C-alpha cells in the first residue's frame, strides 16, 4: 500500500488505464483531424483549392472507413499505452516523474530526441510493411485511401496500429523522458500526421531548391505515396528517403506542379 501511494498518479489513476489512454488518444485525434477538416474541407475549401494536391475530394464512404479504423486504432493505443505504464511500474522504463530532476533544457532535448527516434523508427517499419509478405496484413488498410483525408491519420489495421504504438515503449525505454515531454511529442506526431494526410501543400515553391527542403518532408511527399504506393517512406524529415534513394522519381516534379498552379 505504501508503495502504491508513492507511485505517480499516472500509474495508479484512471488516466493510465487502457480506457483512459484510448480516450486521450481519441481526443487528440478528433481535435486535430477535426480542426484540419473544418479548415481544409469546409471554411477554406475554395480559397485553398489550387493547393489541393489531388484536386478531387474523398467520398463520404472513404471518410467513414477512415473513421472506423481510426476508432479501433485508439483502442490499440490504449492497450499498448497501458502496457507501457505497466513496464514503468516494474521500473523497466527510463521515465522520470519530477520535472526539476533534469531541468528545461533536458526536457526539450528529449522531445527532440523522441521526434528523431520516431522518424527513424517510422521510415524502417514503413518500408518493412511494404514487403509483399507483410503488406496485406499490416499496411493495406492504410493504403485503401488513395486520396486521404485528415481522418486517415489513424486509419490502420490493428496490426499496423500495434507497430505504430510500439514507439511508446521504444521511446520511454531508451530516453530518460518526463511524461509531459512525451505528451508534447504525441501532440507533434498527431499534428504532423494530420497535416500530411489533409491533402494540401502549404510550403512555398522554392522549398525543394533550398537546404530546408532537403531536410523537411512535405505533404506532397506523403500524398504521392498514397497515390502511387511507390517510394516516399519518410515521416517528418526527408533524410532517410534521400539517404536510401527511395524518394519517388517524380517527387520534385509533383511538388513543383502543385506549388506553381495559378490560384
Ligand atoms: Zn505506405
Ligand atoms: Zn498515410
Biggest sheet record: none
**How does the helix and strand content classify structurally?**
mainly alpha
Number of strands: 0
Distance between the termini: 66 Å
Bound heterogens, unique: zinc ion
- Work out the strand percent: under 5%
Description:
The structure is a single chain. This protein has 263 residues and is an all-alpha fold. It is 64% helix and 0% strand. The chain has helices at 2-6, 9-12, 18-43, 60-89, 103-129, 132-138, 140-143, 158-165, 167-174, 179-198, 211-215, 219-228, 239-244, 251-259. Helix 4 packs across helix 8 and helix 5 packs across helix 10 (179-198). The chain is globular, with a radius of gyration of 19 Å. The mean pLDDT is 95. The structure holds zinc ion (ZN) (2 copies). One zinc ion binds at residues 126, 130, 139, 143, 225.
